[in-house]
Amino acid sequence: GNSVTQMEGPVTLSEEAFLTINCTYTATGYPSLFWYVQYPGEGLQLLLKATKADDKGSNKGFEATYRKETTSFHLEKGSVQVSDSAVYFCALLGLGGSEKLVFGKGTKLTVNP
Amino acid sequence: GAVVSQHPSRVICKSGTSVKIECRSLDFQATTMFWYRQFPKQSLMLMATSNEGSKATYEQGVEKDKFLINHASLTLSTLTVTSAHPEDSSFYICSAPDRGLPMNTEAFFGQGTRLTVV
Questions:
Q1: Interface test with A, best of B23, B29, B32, B44 (most A CBs within 10 A)
Q2: What does each C-alpha distance from B24 to A1, B45, B65 come to in angstroms?
Q3: In angstroms, rounded to a whole number, what is the distance separating the alpha carbons of residues A57 and A35?
Q4: End-to-end CA, chain A
């Protein structure tokens, strides 16, 4: 079945540091890929997505590129801020009508001033 | 964008009682909804897939009689925690994919329900 493997945290960075959170997946066909963010005490929010190979999703300075050849969707940001402190989830959604949304285990990011 | 509304956001109940959590898709039809439970240290566990007009599909290890799921319409799914116990205390999140979008993509999340059983 489909699965997502995400870099385990926690990750602690200083403000303005470069961020990479690795995510690889296993799936049949061409799933859609997502990064979700969860701020403390809140539900999940979509951060960015990509629906086909070589697509780049971007939002709020975060980027991730759908790499079919390496089955990866790594999240990057060039300069993190304290307000980026949150838990980040990589996720996959298959294209079949009954496919499940599959999550990685989440990576907690803490950005210190 | 599409919105999924989950209610209540917080609930405290006594041990042995039942609690119902609602998940509504507000501006799209959701034939499928997913129910997750989030444990401490953030991992999300898929509990079940709710299917409109048919029985829910439960993940291995999830008790069907304990967590009753009903998906009576294209915009509403409910999760009922029956005979709740303190170990059921958790953060429950619903999600609905909007398969009507281009490229058949994107899942939207409710804001979650913090259940505390005392």
A1: B44
A2: 28, 20, 22
A3: 9
A4: 41
What are the tens digits of pLDDT across the range A28-61?
878 889 999 998 877 788 899 998 899 999 999 9
A92-101, B12-21, B45-54: which range is least confident on average? A92-101
For chain A, say whether B34 makes contact (Cβ under 8 Å): yes
* pLDDT digit string, tens, across residues B67-80: 999 998 999 999 99
Shortest CA distance to A50 belongs to which of A2, A93, A15, A19?
Answer: A93
Please check whether residue B42 touches A, CB under 8 A: yes
pLDDT at position A37: 93
Q: How far is CA A26 from CA A23, A32, A43, A51, B43, in A?
A: 10, 12, 26, 15, 19
Which amino acid is present at A20?
Answer: T
Contact A95 B104 (CB under 8 A): yes
